[in-house]
Amino acid sequence: MVSVREFKPEDAAQASVVFFESFKTYLKERMETDAPRPAEYTENLMRYTINEDCESISFVAEEDGRIVGCITVNLALKRGLGCLVRIGVMPGNAGKGIGKMLFRAADDFWKKRQTRKVRTCVSSINPGALKFYESCGFHVEATLKDHFFPGVDEHQLALFY
Ligand SMILES: CC(C)(COP(=O)(O)OP(=O)(O)OC[C@H]1O[C@@H](n2cnc3c(N)ncnc32)[C@H](O)[C@@H]1OP(=O)(O)O)[C@@H](O)C(=O)NCCC(=O)NCCS
User: Fold this and answer.
1) Secondary structure of the chain: what % helix, strand, coil (to 5)?
2) What is the pLDDT of residues 27-61, one digit of tens each?
3) CATH number of the domain that 22 lies in?
4) How far is the CA of 146 from the centre of ligand 1 (A)?
5) Model pTM?
6) Is the CB of residue 26 below 6 angstroms from any atom belonging to ligand 1?
7) Does residue 148 lie within any of the structural domains?
8) Is 8 part of a structural domain of the chain?
9) Which of 85, 133, 135, 151 has the fewest CB atoms nearer than 10 Å to its CB?
10) Which atom of ligand 1 approaches the CA of 133 most closely?
């Protein structure tokens, strides 16, 4: 059974693999690294932080002691503006509702904190993720041409509460 819980530092090595393998499914030769990031790198990105301006949190989906999905989100506290920083589900586990479970954990986090709006972005070469975000309530607010890669547009997505 898959369950979702808050990220712990000891999850970092597995989380690195989840992000590497899941992003590779659509980035392919555009990946910046040819191996998962070191655990310390991922721990720095995913660990819980809070200051007067920003709260950042990550959740993982776990099945039989294995991390099969991860999400990192934050909230600019004075602005009520959230960001879904990144989400990934292990390719063999995609399409089973795990992404939605991770989104729900983030959604609870935002709802408990008077969030106004959440933003994220998705590449035009990743239509499956766009469908996923739309199923979570996001809509395309703008499209940036030739953004991170030549010839690849980037959709800016918004979810209003
Ligand atoms: C995008 C991603 C996180 C979705 O996670 P998932 O566990 O596969 O998604 P779920 O099974 O929870 O699906 C939730 C909804 O999204 C839709 N969806 C998910 N992937 C889809 C796809 N490839 N094509 C069409 N619809 C898709 C599902 O149909 C489902 O719709 P419903 O709730 O109306 O039934 C996952 O596929 C992934 O890790 N992709 C690679 C990494 C990535 O693209 N990250 C985002 C970068 S911007």
Assistant:
1) 35, 40, 25
2) 999 999 999 999 999 999 999 999 999 999 999 99
3) 3.40.630.30
4) 24
5) 0.98
6) yes
7) no
8) yes
9) 151
10) 16
